[in-house]
Amino acid sequence: MQMPRPSADILGRRASIVARLRALLPADAVIDDPHETRAYECDGLTAYRCPPLAAVLPRTTEEVAAILGLCHAEGVPVVPRGAGTSLAGGALPTADSVILGVARMNAVLETDYDNRFIRVQTGRTNLSVTGAVEADGFFYAPDPSSQLACAIAGNIAMNSGGAHCLKYGVTTNNLLGVTLVQMDGTVVQIGGPWMDAGGLDLLGLICGSEGQLGVVTEATLRILPKPEGARPVLIGFSANEIAGACVSDIIKAGVLPVAIEFMDRPCIRATEAFAHAGYPDCEALLIVEVEGSDAEIDEQLGLIRQIAARHDPVEFRESQSEEESKKIWLGRKSAFGAMGQINDYMCLDGTIPVSELPRVLRRIGELSREYGLDVANVFHAGDGNMHPLILFDANKPGDLQTCEALGAEILKLCVEVGGCLTGEHGVGIEKRDLMVVQFAPEDLEAQMRVKDVFDPDWLLNPAKVFPLGASETRRAS
Amino acid sequence: MNPDTIAVLRPETEAELAEAIRLASAPLAIRGGGTRPVGRPQTGALLETGALSGITLYEPGALTLVAKAGTPLAEVEAALAAEGQRLPFEPMDHRGLLRTTGEPTLGGMVAANASGPRRVQAGACRDSLIGVRFVDGTGTVVKNGGRVMKNVTGYDLVKLMAGSWGTLGVLTEVAFKLLPAPESAATILWQGLDSASALRLMAEALKTPWEVNAAAHLPDQRTLLRVEGFARSVAYRADELAKALAPFGRSVTLGAAETASLWAQVRDVAPFHDQDGDVWRIAVKPSESAALVAKAGGEALYDWGGGLIWLRLGEGVDLRARLGDFPGHATLIRASAETRRHIAPFPPEPPAIAALTRGLRARFDPRGVLNPGLMDA
Ligand SMILES: Cc1cc2nc3c(=O)[nH]c(=O)nc-3n(C[C@H](O)[C@H](O)[C@@H](O)COP(=O)(O)OP(=O)(O)OC[C@H]3O[C@@H](n4cnc5c(N)ncnc54)[C@H](O)[C@@H]3O)c2cc1C
Ligand SMILES: Cc1cc2nc3c(=O)[nH]c(=O)nc-3n(C[C@H](O)[C@H](O)[C@H](O)COP(=O)(O)OP(=O)(O)OC[C@H]3O[C@@H](n4cnc5c(N)ncnc54)[C@H](O)[C@@H]3O)c2cc1C
């Protein structure tokens, strides 16, 4: 993975740039000590690291505007950062860039149950948004597995999803408004606690723009009343194909589960060894969760049981208690941790049409053997969002490169069957160079034109999303 | 304008459409079904999308549909109904309100981001739209999104195209995620509530866990809540709602057939079809809507639990001048072409937003040939 060479001119002006930042901000908000900037050298994609020129940690929208105004005047690139959990390298700095972290901006600004929204500063973590309204019977729906750590800032930038998005949608479907600071320091309000845009849907454009159009400092989020109850079932199958067919049948039958999660044998084995959730030893399993009153849950699960029965499940385990529900989710929730225990891994995120599941899983198995690296699959099956985890050994020379080559093959496969490179993690640097597989030059040009409008000098997170060759002339100008 | 005197282009393929736009030396008025003459009146040659028609892919097991932009909405709805599925956002039919004829098309629906009562729960048209192909103002074909339900690959131009009223590009193909049609539905109805009580009722209803998926208050003081789903669940939730909201007065519960016809009337703003006057569409913070209507005058139909107001006013009244600043925005949907020339149909934007909007139009349609000025303030 290549990053652009840092500008010698900017590196040469380092001291004066830092001094000017210090003049704008409280003393503790500017970090330039090389030991301390190391904390910002990477995000969740730890294979790539580079300390920034400096990191700044503003507390208000005004401070963010001042920082951006200054960096704009100085021609210094800025990389926005939330909690740094991106798996795509979205928050990876370059040596000539300033990291703008919103972690200190974590206040709840307004909660309004009559109008069903909450307004927060974007450094607030995902889980603590729900935490702020839970006691009153509400929740914020998008629930990335990283929700304890990740910030609303990163969720908006990546348009993050989670297990329960099958029913409630992803971030963009739950975002009502933002305060956005543009690269030249202009502050704009887009949307608010009402529905739909009056003019062009700029809110829809900003969500998922990976920190390239502006820095989001505040967000108005839709909150929902908590369901009366929820209950999962675990269904084991003797083959991936059968589990895939069962997913399709459940969807067709008119049940709308909140989540349908899929795990294959390698993943089941690894998590079982790690978390002892008591999963059956089978080829594939589904966790299906439904919501409602007890009677409603019984009715939906009855229907799911009937459908599953047509596919000869090796196991159908319906939770009878809160305890058992937790246990069913335990393995799924510790899948990433389990993988991390046994190996280094790379987590892919391509999405495919649900009908292609069996074929794609089979082909991934073949590719895994060809490249000699194990692949475990755990993913959101209801919406076709795959998460193949490629296991490798970072200490073994060449293994990372083999892993990346295998990853690229798998993502190309996703595109080939009618899917896409990333369903919820974003492009960042990780999938940047594969964009040409999914998009024609004209498609990328149309997207880059949007950045031209919001950030004409290409100073905001410039080396991400678009292949460096495609964005070169714009970044250079 | 006499349709006989204006040129009409009717491309049959995406390539022909691109060619037509590339060669255009004067403005084009983009026309799907011709059922939504909204915005600043257009004077260009008509560019019709009706020949770009047909469902390209429908996979019920994956809840996805892809179709060409000129496909009649009715054709799509029939295909979905045959599989027991539907578009989640309940698109409105503008014909009754705008007194137009013609066949609404998918492209027109997307370009208008047309969403009905279910928007409170299922989201807007833009939330179900998962992919687009379009031709921009230079005649270049662009695709964005795709046919899968979750996709964050690159910028979301899909959302940008929804609600852009043909001013950034002409859609040639659109892809949607779908929902299963419910087994049953019910409406809980209260009569004779004033708008303030009705709004409180709707706010309380939408706070419950019983999945109210539509909440409206009509000019004749009927207040309606809708639940949909499996029959037993519908009965249970309707019952719980009636009990919990009993302090607002006695309610009656209506069955599936009545529910369907009643909500079609709400969706299409039927109470205003035979009434004179201009019609405004106001998106607002729900709790502000009663006060806003009191200030505006006129007759109101509240949908989306009060988050959407359809307001009927005298002809040529500048509503925005009456209201001043408020948390939301107002669009003039039905008015004579004359009125739409001197009152901006789309809400004026603050300078920084207007600059972004202008910038986007300049990039996507540098020669200003696609519905030029339609959304201008
Ligand atoms: C009764 C009536 C009177 C009219 N009078 C005049 C007049 O006096 N002068 C005049 O210039 N025009 C007139 N028009 C045309 C009309 O105002 C414009 O063509 C246009 O604004 C509406 O297009 P439509 O009705 O076909 O929209 P619909 O097909 O209903 O579409 C709604 C919106 O989406 C856009 N759209 C439709 N399909 C696509 C697509 N595939 N991609 C992108 N955008 C799309 C349309 O441009 C329109 O903005 C009239 C139309 C009607 C029905
Ligand atoms: C174990 C694990 C599990 C995960 N599970 C999921 C999952 O289930 N679903 C999912 O979708 N993701 C998941 N992720 C990925 C990651 O958590 C999400 O992408 C998350 O939204 C990133 O948030 P963050 O605050 O950490 O952002 P960061 O990593 O700090 O930044 C992410 C991107 O957002 C930009 N950004 C940050 N702040 C701002 C701002 N204020 N304004 C504009 N742009 C900004 C950055 O420049 C960068 O491009 C997982 C990650 C891990 C490590």
Give the second-level CATH assignment, the architecture of the largest domain in chain B: 2-Layer Sandwich
Mind telling me which CATH architecture of the largest domain in chain A this is? 2-Layer Sandwich
Number of helices of chain B: 14
CATH fold assignment of the largest domain in chain A: Uridine Diphospho-n-acetylenolpyruvylglucosamine Reductase, domain 3
CATH hierarchy, class of the largest domain in chain B: Alpha Beta
How many distinct beta strands of chain A? 18
Radius of gyration of chain B: 21 Å
Low-confidence stretches of chain A: none
Mean pLDDT of chain A: 95
The main sheet of chain A comes to:
7 strands, antiparallel
What's the number of structural domains of chain A? 4
Write the layout of secondary structure elements.
The complex is a heterodimer of chains A (477) and B (377).
Chain A: H1 8-12, H2 14-24, E1 30-31, H3 34-37, E2 54-56, H4 61-74, E3 78-81, E4 98-101, E5 108-112, E6 117-121, H5 126-133, E7 138-139, H6 152-158, H7 165-168, E8 175-181, E9 187-191, H8 202-206, E10 215-222, E11 224-225, E12 230-237, H9 240-252, E13 259-264, H10 265-275, E14 284-291, H11 294-309, E15 315-318, H12 322-333, H13 335-342, E16 344-347, H14 357-371, E17 375-380, E18 388-392, H15 399-416, H16 435-438, H17 441-454, H18 468-476
Parallel strand pairs in A: 2-4, 3-4
Antiparallel strand pairs in A: 1-2, 5-6, 6-10, 7-11, 8-9, 8-10, 12-14, 12-15, 13-14, 13-17, 16-18, 17-18
Chain B: E1 8-9, H1 14-23, E2 28-31, E3 45-48, E4 55-59, E5 64-68, H2 73-82, E6 85-86, H3 95-98, H4 106-111, H5 119-122, H6 125-128, E7 129-136, E8 141-145, H7 157-161, E9 169-177, E10 179-180, E11 184-191, H8 195-207, E12 214-217, E13 222-229, H9 231-244, E14 252-254, H10 256-267, E15 278-284, H11 289-296, E16 299-303, E17 308-313, H12 319-323, E18 328-334, H13 337-342, H14 351-364
Parallel strand pairs in B: 1-3, 2-3
Antiparallel strand pairs in B: 4-5, 5-9, 6-10, 7-8, 7-9, 11-13, 11-14, 12-13, 15-17, 15-18, 16-17
The complex binds flavin-adenine dinucleotide (2 copies).
One flavin-adenine dinucleotide (FAD) is lined by residues 1, 29-37, 39, 41-43, 49, 69, 100, 105, 107-108, 111-112, 165-166, 170-171, 337, 371, 374 of chain B.
